[in-house]
Amino acid sequence: MRPFMSVMDRHGCAERPESEPFGRPSRGAGICCYRGSLQAFVIAVAQPRRRGAQACRARRRRITTTDGPAAAVRRSAGGTMTQSDELKRSTIVLYGSIGMPLAIIGYPLAVYLPPFYAQELGANMALMALVLVLARITDVITDPLIGTLSDRWQTRFGRRKPWLVMGVPLMLVGTVQIFMPPAGVGVWHLLLWTMVMYLGWTMVTLPYSAWGAELSTAYHQRSRVTASREAYVLIGLFLAALAPAIVQAFGRRFEAGDTDGALMQAMVWLLGRDGQFGIGYGPILASMAWLLILLLPLTVLLVVTRVREAPPRTVKRTDWRQGLRVLKKNGPFKIMMLVLLIVITGEAFRNALSVFFMQHVIQIQAQIGLMYLIYFGVGILGIPFWLSLGRRIGKHRAFCVAVLVSSVSIIGMFFLEAGQLVPFAVMFALKGFCFAAFQFLPLSMLADIIDLDTARSREHRAGLFFAMSGIAHKLAMALGLGLSLGLLALVGFDATAQNDATHLLALRVLYILGPVALYMLAFFIAWNYPLTAARQARIRHRLNRREQRLGVVAGGAS
Hints:
Keywords: Membrane, Transmembrane, Transmembrane helix. The two termini are 25 Å apart. The longest helix is centred in the middle third of the chain and has 37 residues, at 219-255. The chain has helices spanning 37-46, 53-65, 69-76, 89-96, 99-111, 113-120, 125-152, 161-179, 187-214, 219-255, 262-271, 281-306, 320-328, 331-361, 368-381, 383-393, 395-413, 421-433, 435-457, 462-490, 501-527, 533-557. It has a single domain (90-312, 323-538), classed as MFS general substrate transporter like domains (Growth Hormone, Chain: A, Up-down Bundle), CATH 1.20.1250. It is built from 22 helices and no strands. The protein is mainly alpha-helical.
């Protein structure tokens, strides 16, 4: 059975899970962000209810008494799965709530921060690109440190909770300083407080993700936990897209002279600067900061005070050097990492230039918030389609279809002129429709790769695989951001001035050809991806037979 997924039997119930499907909570548990959580959510909400529920429950009762190596581990620790593994619904709902503010913060960092500092604060584009790349690199460096410390540092309050409590102030202060900076600041202010914000982000997200995997040892309980978290993530993404649309609607009213009313005055006081309010990017970022100030402390307080931590378990620690040597010999993993690096670099490249393109080329600055609301709304609605297509033609081929559709939609934007709002909205929505495929399908393919490694090595290294993919994701984000802004500065584009036709053409070419070239490179690499559905089924069959043999041996020994 693939980690984070379940294979349905004829009654519609899940087959026996892998032993420790989320990776052992060892040295790698804090490092791994368990990025397959979106996959778990999608599978949890997409699976239909089928007949035979009574047979399914009976099967699960049998499974919990003889579930292979996991049962042997629990018996050796002093018993089988008990009611302590059953989590209350309120616990699952509360735990997932932190996913909402965490989702809100990531979107404006990629989309609105570069134009805000370049246009409204007058920051040098090339220097800003360098600063943001350096901040991202420090984030990569702190990941393994915070992950290891949160695994090993035991306090009277637990291992994970202290990190969340310490990380929240850093994250809030850093975000406020970045999104609502004092007048006259420059890129060095951005560097300092972005590093502080990323440090707080790491201190919250890594222990939080590891904590979720430790809440229960039961496979289906873990699926419910991750489903809850990712449901809140989707809510957070929707809020992050809705807030700019609302702020810009009020900004248009303010610029038209409608400055009366208590609600308008509150918006000016909270989001404006020096009594001024409009459709710029400052009010949008300020709204995101206020959402974070409101939601992050509240959700962390509820989780820390109402959700228990699992007691630490004594487990064999992962030998990371040996694990890295194994990864080098895993052909599908190397291909997948290369594809992820290329595609995420292309996505970061496009995201950093999207607002510039919409404002200066299409000239729809007042509707940018609405465009992203459509983008994420259509993306969320597209999740079931990409799941279904992945089952029908294979995950890697479905991913290639998404890459191709994205490329076609972006190429179509090349021919648009100023003021063509509706055609741009259609093409932008088509790109947004591929959002779920870009987020979900590579993670699902990575789960299959973990099965391959388990079949070869007889060990479970999910934490190692997802940690490496997380590092690759952050490095690709830094590379895409730095390349896009650096090249935009190199061609002479000035975000604070009225650019001539040559500079606008350069922006158009970068926005279109940059990501499309990277997408198509990933397309050709991924098309002949070797780990197909048929091969994965054979690997899964071998693992199931091995677990059955181990389960029989463990049952006899007990």
